[in-house]
Amino acid sequence: MIRRSSLAALFATTAVLPFSANAQAPTRAIRRDIPLTNAIRRALAAGTRDSTGRPGRNYWQLWMEYTINVRLDPATSTITGRETIKLHNNSDSSLSSIQLRLDQNIFRGENPRGASVPAENHEGFVITDLKVDGSAVDLAAQPSGRGRGAGPAAGGPSISGLHLTSARLNLANPIASKGVATLELAWHNKLAGGAGAGHRMTLRWGDSLYQVAQWYPRVAVYDDLRGWDLEPYLGPSEFYNNFGRFDVNIDVPSGWIVAATGVLQNPTQVLSNTARERLSRVLESDSTRTIVGADETLASPGGGDRQVWHFVADTVNDFAWATARHWVWQATRATIPGRGPIPVNVYYLPGRAAQFANAGPILRHALEFYSKLWMPDPFPQHTMVDGPDTGMEYPMFVMSNDGAADHETGHQWWPMTVSNNETWYGWMDEGFNQYMNILSGADAAHRTPDLDGRGQSYGFTSGDEREGSLMWNENFGGPLYSFQAYSKTPLMLSMLGAIVGDTAVWRAQSQ
Description:
The chain is α+β, with helices and mostly antiparallel strands. It has helices spanning 4-15, 38-46, 267-270, 273-279, 359-373, 405-410, 430-444, 481-500, 502-510; strands spanning 63-73, 78-88, 95-101, 126-132, 135-136, 158-160, 166-175, 180-190, 204-205, 209-212, 218-219, 222-223, 227-228, 243-253, 257-260, 263-264, 289-292, 306-316, 321-324, 328-336, 340-348, 382-385, 392-394, 397-399.
């Protein structure tokens, strides 16, 4: 602390320092290049990125292959699963550790959370078995945290942070560059329900409808910018995932309907003859067809108390599913430029038909419009499901109703096709999406999009000291997180369009 008397003396001394008006002022160092983050600078030097922002000559990504078998027990709202993960290390470095994402551990009361209130507290992921290339990991031994540059584990693989949302698996034998490692896990966890607040915090209504997301232990991203993604999952911000292939078997009570990312592999085993016949006609026209009506049940072709639904999804960065004891199932088509028609499925509770009255046409328009605006949708089908979360997206799969259907479908471009680190840069998917929703809404209404005045409206927020920078980790977005992630990008792109022309902005986004 500097006392007032000391400050006064300092100013007094400064005031009498000799100064010559004719003295040559020293040349000041002014930075004239464009500042780059250290991560981008390293990537440019390594050739994994180029100055345009595109992947460079040495670009790489990890690739995952997930094989998962999961069983739902409605009596306890618990899922029990076993999975095998093949990690393809396409990087230029050997890996001495693997970072695991364990998002369900946010429900453990002792873990940090952002601006969200989970529906309930429970024990999170309970991992009962873990092997790396056949070597068992001692789950009872929890070594102290190892640093970012930790070397191989001594004596065998070990894990730390198993109770957190991001855990480190330390390897006895590093995975060589271009090598493959196999992880085997067994686990169970409860699907939370209740009066939660915040994204993705409520996964069920009672014991008869479940929206199942962030439900399996997964490998975090290892990239050329920062290495392993070490960010914790705090609730509000979203994800950064590896692309890969998912082969998933979902065991539910007989007669329940399952919707999921991917393509159903065994329709003859889980769908009635009537449902299959109706589905076979979906691609014939734009009409919305009822596959299972409000007064119908999905009869079990094979009999028995339980059924296993088998889905496969290739080149996706996540997998989500939902199931209900009784859903209305409707389907229509969307015609994708250069690809032709694909099926679009909608599932909702019988008493909630009003919230899904225009679901098919909204989804169709979104898929077709964005395919023309940016690039053709690459996925074989799309699905929207009813439930407690009415605004969330996963590959080929959205949790919504008519209200957010266009927005959530837009996410099939960002981040499901053009993946980005949503935890760090939420504006790159939410903000771009909000902007393109303006264009889609105008097209659906057969009018010219009105972007005038949006940039000027930024003045209402720009003086608020709570506003966060766009290039800022969303985990620390602060009280204006929603504006930072969702609203600011449309305002900035509107201003840019006023200078270079809106169509130039659209062309740039599609490159």
